[in-house]
Amino acid sequence: ILNTQDNVDMINELKGLFHDSANVAKQNREGILGRTAGFDFYENTLLPSHTVGAGSGYLVNGANQTGSTLAVSTGTGALNKGDIITIAGVYRVHPETKQNTGKLQQFVVTANYAGGAGNISISPAITPTGAGQNVTASPANGAAITVAGTASTAHGLSLAFQKDAFVFATADLVKPNGVDFAAREVFDGISLRIVRDYDINNDNMPCRIDVLYGFKAVRPQLACRLAAN
Fold first, then answer.
1. Alpha-carbon separation of residue 10 from 93, 121, 157, 202 (angstroms)
2. 135 - beta bridge partners?
3. Which of 178, 154, 179 is closest to 229 using CA atoms?
4. Which terminus of the chain faces fewer neighbouring Cβ atoms within 10 Å, N or C?
5. What does the mean pLDDT of the chain come to?
6. What is the pLDDT of residue 135?
């Protein structure tokens, strides 16, 4: 899902590559990318932006740290929830083979951090061993922390994900008896209930439509933010 500017930039960058005639027409006339490079592209004008915090110069405080908090020393400036950081010497591993990918593991800051020495909340948890291993090793004491992006600068966000990353579910609501009308239908996987009855006090026929829903990122590792512009 691309924000408007990313969609415009992507179409411009891909215009010289091979596409069948139908895709080329949609790109140039409608601004629709369709399916390219294994992804189905869609535009969304409601995606938010993110402002990178002003934090810099932070160092890891203590070796062999694991889990969802990272103790840091020195450094200045705040980190914003949603900031992306990397730690020197902490590399991402392949989720199945556990081999070093040669790329630093990215962590997202999960709560605003005021600055100075303390504990930064991060995700994913630092896991250097076991079935859930995601990094080559715990950070070393004094390892440098780098914040992605330009400090105190807002940038647009897009989203790339595999369909199993998120779940949206609805439940079948009960159809009450003793009313004028009640029905339940499933449309595009969404369960809707409609109920109509007579209001003797106000002499009218109120009608309501209800949906009971929930959503969750069940496999967040199958999704990533694309930050630009």
1. 29, 34, 14, 57
2. 92
3. 154
4. C
5. 91
6. 98
CA distances from 171 to 38, 177, 178, 196 (A): 32, 19, 22, 20
pLDDT beyond 60 at 18: no
> What would you measure as the largest C-alpha separation in the chain, in angstroms?
74
SS3 at position 195: strand
Asked if 205 and 196 count as a contact pair (C-beta separation under 8 A), the reply is yes
Check: pTM over 0.90? Answer yes or no: no
pLDDT at position 5 is 83
Q: What per-residue confidence (pLDDT) applies to 140?
A: 97
What percent of the chain is predicted at pLDDT more than 70? 91
Burial of 21 (0-12, 13-18, 19+ CB in 10 A): exposed
Beta bridge partners of 161: 223
Break the chain into its structural domains and give their ranges: 4-49, 53-152, 174-210
Question: CATH top-level class for 53-152?
Answer: mainly beta
Residue 209 identity (one-letter amino acid): I
Q: How many helices (H) and strands (E) does the chain have?
A: 2, 18
Report CA dihedral (93, 96, 97, 100) to the nearest 10 degrees: -10
